[in-house]
Design goal:
This protein is α/β, with parallel strands linked by helices. The chain contains ten helices and seven strands. The chain folds into two domains: about 230 residues, Spore Coat Polysaccharide Biosynthesis Protein SpsA, Chain A, CATH 3.90.550.10; about 70 residues. Strand 2, helix 2 and strand 3 form a beta-alpha-beta unit.
């Protein structure tokens, strides 16, 4: 079995010097063909020189450096692509801050062998600040409610998955989408499980994520929900809102027409403007949905042609 551990890192030089050798030792204990792939996400703290030294010291360590800081999702996508190109059987995600415990790898890999999908190392007892724990708990609750995916710790950076899962998810990793890898795997039909794991305090430095990650995460959740639910049928969403808007506007205008026929004055009534606006918006939404369907159809035809 070939195992690739992907470690995205941004300004984690001190931590990598400790974390990477610990992962290598654990892979050696597992007696698998393992590699540790560190993706340097445009670090400016000497991470590059630390990785060169680690590569010289450990044959199982490889690194890839991005020219600038592009975010964790892009770094993970880069790591996934490298692992898939090397025909890895299992891909592991771990953070570079030292909070994930490499000694948990045997348990996670054993769980993955039974489910053949994705297993998340759930941080049941977290060593983080109160505000981070609180916002994460709220985020996980909303994510579970909106997505329907099972789990309590979607945002955990400690995950193991089969190569098939990684191959299907990799094209969807951009922005902040790394937070929804479990959700995407679930919606794609793969088994997803959680296993409680140990969670340690950060070794050195401070977290790279502030409170704004909370709001960005919810916006990305709506994006994922839309893509997974309406990717192949966008007119169901836009057309549905359009028909509701059109129907309400038509009822308003019909009521005003009756009032006018009965001799009433409607020229200065706000309902007239609201009714016309709702009808126009409804028609635009319906047309937008049809245009989106045309784009989906064109894409599907292009895919069929490329497979011939």
């Amino acid at each position: 079995m070939s195992v690739y551990v992907i470690v995205p890192a941004f300004n984690e030089a001190e931590n990598l010097a400790v974390v990477v050798p610990a992962i290598v030792d654990e892979l050696d204990n597992l007696n698998v063909a393992g590699h540790v792939c560190v993706v340097d996400d445009g670090s400016t703290d000497g991470t590059e020189s630390v990785m060169r030294e680690l590569e010289r010291s450990h044959s199982a360590v490889i690194s890839e450096r991005l020219s600038r800081n592009r975010g964790k999702a892009v770094a993970l996508q880069c790591g996934f692509d490298l692992a898939l190109a090397a025909d890895a059987d299992v891909i592991v995600m771990m953070d570079a801050d030292g909070q994930d415990d490499p000694s948990e790898l045997p348990r996670l890999l054993s769980e993955l062998a039974s489910c053949q999908g994705l297993v998340t190392g759930a941080r049941v007892t977290r060593n983080d600040r109160f505000i981070k724990r609180s916002t994460s708990r709220l985020f996980n609750g909303v994510t579970a409610a909106l997505s329907g995916a099972p789990g309590r710790d979607f945002n955990s950076g400690f995950k193991v998955m089969t190569a098939d899962v990684a191959a299907d998810i990799s094209p969807m990793l951009y922005g902040e989408m790394h937070r929804f890898i479990t959700v995407m795997a679930h919606w794609l039909g793969y088994p997803t499980r959680e296993l409680p794991v140990a969670h340690h305090e950060r070794l050195h430095g401070k977290t790279k994520y502030g409170i704004n990650r909370f709001w960005r995460g919810f916006m990305d959740l709506l994006t994922v929900k839309f893509l997974m639910s309406y990717e192949s049928r966008p007119s169901h969403l836009f057309g549905g809102f359009g028909f509701v808007s059109l129907a309400v506007g038509a009822l308003m205008l019909g009521y005003l027409l009756i009032q006018r026929l009965l001799g009433g004055s409607i020229g200065e009534r706000p309902m007239l403007i609201a009714g016309v606006l709702l009808v126009v918006v409804g028609l635009q939404l319906i047309l937008f949905g049809l245009l989106a369907e045309l784009l989906v159809y064109t894409r599907q035809q292009s895919v069929k042609e490329s497979r011939k």
